[in-house]
Specification:
The complex is a heterodimer. Chain A is of the alpha+beta class. Chain A is built from four helices and twelve strands; from the N terminus they run αββββββαβββαβββα. Chain B folds into five domains: about 110 residues, PH-domain like, CATH 2.30.29.30; about 180 residues, ABC transporter type 1, transmembrane domain (ABC transporter transmembrane region fold); about 110 residues; about 160 residues, P-loop containing nucleotide triphosphate hydrolases (Rossmann fold); about 70 residues, Rossmann fold. Chain B is about 55% helix and about 15% strand. In chain B, strand 2 and strand 3 form a beta hairpin. The chains are: A alpha+beta, B alpha+beta. At the A-B interface, helix 1, helix 2, strand 7, strand 8 and strand 9 of A face strand 2, strand 7, helix 9, helix 11 and helix 13 of B.
Chain lengths: ~190, ~750
């Protein structure tokens, strides 16, 4: 089920009762206030839980990169096991926030399509030439109509044949020519 | 003919653009030589632009491709300073991290398109940093078409734009010209059919000019009507016989094509299947061959027919009056352009329509299959409203498609009617000037429609033809792919294998550069039973696949009876290896047929004996049809334990010299397992056996146990030895005991 459906579903069907709260006591529950992220030396990202333990080679990932890109940030250790999750970045100090933003920016290479120069649809395969936030790019999508992922009514994610990702955050914000080209294919 | 293009000898040594090459030359010492030079498509993680990674025998260089960049922006790292390299997969791309001894890292970002290349680069860099000489790959998947430089829809696949259409057509025709006389007949009939279509309007012309206008010549009218009748009879005859002969030849050509494709499927190496989805391959058999079939049987005759028609009509019309013919031709270009444009639109709509339709039907499929879940969560209303939304989307797109279609017909018909207007007006003038007879004018009017009709389909036809060619090309790609070396003449025949297996520094990776089996050394004596243990992904299954020679080692050796496995006759090898897997695959047929699968000539007594030995006899005779029971698709009418016992019976009858048990006893209840253990114990006797088991207790009977960890053999020894050593195996046993203690039942998890 897509995010869109879930969101709509919640709107249409009022909750009959609140969800019964469940407390999970993780054996190694992490007190979020003890987390310290820093680079020491400059090329080494470290995480310490003050007074407890320390990690190097940690990975910072989004739990739901498409629907909640700014919240639910997970910190993983070198073996990709979760250390802890930050439900949001409120109360995170500036220095840590900067590190988190840098690391997220490093990990997610999805490009945003700003305008579309041409789309040719041949034999069920579409060839795109677009201008993205990273500059010009050509890519190929097989069976675009079926493979485009709608993340919202006007939000679209295209994954090309190689697994590169291109997002159109809001179709309505594109110029009319680009929009017409998208309409043509999807 | 699909010619395999020769890949460049050193794919990691790409040609540099001039400016970069010049800058590199300025930077390098005269004696310094490039080992690797590759382009990335991301200059940094925020920019799509080329940059070059160059590795020489003494350092690593990173050169931006922009012309303005001076040598100062070239990053250079001494190779002695490089500790290791790592290709890190990111979301939508990747990063090659070149780590220096002091810990600082040089990062090269790339999009997913280049990820396979940089995986190789990273491996080579790692070897260079370790002081080894790098194993440079000889081949990398093509991502772009060599000719038009378009990105390929499938890696190493067919470029739809650069299909060698004539070659493909020629190859298809060769399938049809296997029956040359019938093909010649078919062409003659086609020609006759076209002529017969053209005659009636000409007869009409004579009726008008020589009978109706002079109001005389009754006998001529009779003759003309007779000719008309004869021509019509001829038309019926040709109409039927064209289809009669056409389908005969066409379906035989398709039959042969399908047979060739299936044979290719059977003999292709497993590696071919790894990279492709089963669905995609099956669609080559179904969809692609359907496309070709429709093309050969229906479209091609139609095209030839219409082409001849156009030529004849134009010839005849210009013979009557070339000026008028020019007027007739005037609306042709707009019709062609218009139809090509609108067909493109139509195609987009149809594609959208089929996408919406498949969404609707997949929703239906999902919600009906999952109806228990829908009801259990009381989500009927939401499922309905989701369905309604998709249904409405389908409606909208259907309406738009239909509307475009209507517009298309209207516009083309309108343009065509212009031709008629021209002919009436200018032709009428010619009739008044006595340059043209009224009958000839009528012929013009009739022919004009016959001329325009096929033009409407022009836009569609081209697209369809291309799809059919692409389908044919995909089929030929499989037919032409390299097969397993079954008929290598210099291979050593081994009619009876003793069963000695020896791994000697063997490496293997499904992707070159990502070895899943590393430096394996193992000597197995004939008749020995080896238990293979390790986490999923540790390399157990890989080891076994190598023994079956589904794959070849990438480095090192694997010997059977002291002979390199690559030199053994494949048929001899495979026919003496037996496999009992976790999910035993049965074919739809009787129980007896399934048991006899590996030994087709087996007598019923042999089958009975094997079934007894496999403890299968007792359950088989309880079935109403006994040994003649049809097991259903993939054996779905039998329980898991029953299927397993049949698989063991099959292996017993096959009488292999080397036996492979891949999780043969997992996912069974305890009493059944006991029966199967018994059966296996009988089967194992006197054969070299490799057994993978998740439940370690089942390996007690193994002569030796081999523990794999991350592709390496880390421990070898008997059960007792390994338990005493308290190493990897001991730990695995302990964790398993702990988890089975916690959950008393169903602690089995499927292995790798």
């Amino acid at each position: 089920m897509s995010e869109q459906d879930a969101a709509e579903g919640n709107g249409k069907f009022p909750k009959k009762h609140a969800v019964t709260p469940i407390t999970v006591t993780h054996p190694e529950d992490v007190d979020l206030s003890t987390i310290k992220l820093f680079r020491e030396p400059a090329w080494m990202l470290r995480l310490t839980l003050e007074g407890d333990r320390s990690y190097t080679r940690i990975k910072i990932v989004r739990a739901a990169p498409l629907s909640h890109p700014q919240d639910y940030i997970c910190l993983l250790d070198a073996k990709d096991e979760e250390i802890c999750m930050l439900p949001d970045l409120k109360g995170v100090d500036d220095q840590m926030r900067q590190i988190i933003d840098e690391e997220l920016d490093r990990r997610y290479l999805t490009s945003t399509i700003e305008s579309i120069k041409s789309v040719r649809n041949e034999f069920g395969t579409s060839y795109w030439e677009v201008e993205t936030n990273r500059g010009e790019r050509e890519f190929v999508v097989q069976n675009a109509a079926e493979n485009a992922q709608w993340l919202g009514e006007h939000r679209l994610l295209l994954v090309d044949v190689d697994g590169n990702r291109f997002e159109i955050p809001d179709l309505k914000q594109l110029d009319s020519k680009s929009m017409a080209l998208v309409e043509m294919v999807l | 003919m699909t010619t395999t293009t020769i890949p460049p000898a050193a794919p990691l040594l790409e040609d540099l653009p001039l400016s970069v090459g010049r800058r590199l030359a300025e930077t390098l010492d005269p004696a310094e030589a490039s080992v690797i030079q590759v382009a990335t498509d991301m200059a940094d993680r925020h920019t799509f632009a080329a940059a070059w990674l160059v590795v020489t025998d003494r350092r690593v260089l990173l050169l931006p491709a922009t012309a303005t960049a001076d040598t100062a922006s070239v990053v250079s790292v001494d190779l002695r300073q490089v500790r290791t390299a790592r290709a890190e997969p990111l979301v939508g791309g990747g990063r090659l991290g070149i780590e220096r001894l002091d810990g600082a890292t040089l990062s090269v970002y790339y999009s997913n398109t280049l990820a396979p290349k940089f995986a190789e680069v990273s491996e080579c860099l790692k070897q260079l940093a370790g002081g080894e000489s790098p194993d440079l790959p000889t081949q990398i998947e093509r991502t772009r078409c060599e000719r038009c430089h378009r990105i390929l829809p499938e890696k190493d696949g067919v470029c739809p734009a650069c299909l060698r259409k004539l070659d493909t057509l020629g190859r298809l025709l060769r399938y049809m010209f296997k029956y040359p006389w019938r093909m010649m007949g078919l062409l003659t009939i086609l020609l006759l059919e076209t002529m017969a279509d053209l005659v009636p309007p000409i007869i009409t012309q004579y009726i008008i000019d020589d009978v109706l206008i002079p109001q005389a010549n009754l006998p001529l009218l009779g003759w003309l009507v007779l000719v008309l009748l004869a021509v019509n009879v001829l038309r019926w005859v040709t109409w039927v016989s064209r289809r009669w002969v056409g389908t005969w030849v066409g379906f035989r050509a398709i039959e042969q094509l399908r047979a060739d494709l299936y044979k290719a499927f059977q003999y292709l190496p497993l590696r071919f299947y790894d990279k492709r989805r089963v669905g995609g391959l099956i669609s080559r058999m179904s969809n692609d061959s359907d496309l070709v079939e429709i093309y050969l049987i229906f479209d091609m005759p139609y095209v030839i027919n219409n082409f001849l028609m156009v030529v004849f009509i134009l010839g005849y019309l210009s013979y009557l009056s070339w000026e008028l013919t020019l007027w007739v031709l005037l609306p042709v270009p707009p019709i062609l352009i218009g139809s090509a444009l609108i067909w493109k639109r139509m195609e987009a709509y149809w594609q959208r329509w089929s996408a919406k339709w498949s969404r609707l039907s997949s929703h239906l499929n999902e919600s009906i299959r999952g109806i228990r879940i829908v009801k259990a969560f009381a989500q009927e209303q939401r499922e309905s409203s989701r369905f309604d939304r998709r249904n409405a989307e389908l409606r909208d797109v259907s309406v738009s498609a239909e509307r475009t279609w209507v517009v298309f017909w209207m516009v083309t018909n309108f343009l065509m009617s212009f031709g008629v207007f021209f002919v009436w007006y200018f032709g009428g003038q010619q009739v008044l000037h006595q340059d043209l007879t009224p009958g000839e004018l009528m012929t013009f009017i009739t022919f004009i429609w016959m001329l325009y009709q096929p033009l409407k389909w022009f836009g569609d036809f081209y697209g369809f033809m291309m799809r059919a060619y692409a389908g044919a090309e995909r089929i030929f790609e499989v037919i032409d792919a390299r097969r397993e070396p079954f008929d290598k003449p210099e291979a050593t025949p081994i009619p009876k294998i003793d069963g000695a297996v020896e791994f000697d520094g063997a490496f293997f990776g499904y992707d070159p550069g990502k070895p899943v089996l590393k430096d394996a050394d193992l000597v197995v004596k004939p008749g020995e039973m080896i238990g293979l243990v390790g986490r999923s992904g540790a390399g157990k299954s890989t080891l076994i696949q190598l023994i079956c020679r589904f794959y070849d080692v990438t480095r090192g050796r694997l010997r059977i009876d002291g002979i390199d496995i690559r030199d053994i006759r494949l048929e001899d090898l495979r026919s003496q290896i037996g496999l009992v897997a976790q999910q035993s695959f049965l074919f739809n047929g009787s129980i007896a047929q399934n048991i006899a699968y590996g030994k087709p000539g087996a007598s019923f007594d042999d089958v009975l004996r094997a079934a007894h030995a496999a403890n299968a006899h007792e359950f088989i005779v309880k079935k109403p049809d006994g040994y003649d029971m049809i097991v259903g698709e993939q054996g779905n009418k039998l329980s898991g334990g029953e299927r397993q016992r049949l698989a063991i019976a099959r292996a017993i009858l096959h009488d292999p010299r080397i036996l492979i048990l891949d999780e043969a006893t997992s996912s069974l209840d305890t009493p059944t397992e006991k029966k199967i253990q018994e059966a296996i114990a009988r089967l194992v006797q006197g054969r070299t056996t490799f057994a993978i088991a998740h439940r370690l207790s089942t390996l007690r009977s193994a002569d030796r146990i081999v523990v794999l960890e991350q592709g390496r053999i880390v421990e070898v020894g008997t059960h007792t030895q390994l338990m005493e050593r308290q190493g990897f195996f001991y730990k695995l046993v302990k964790t398993q005991q702990a988890s089975t203690g916690a959950t008393t039942t169903g602690a089995t998890t499927p292995g790798d």
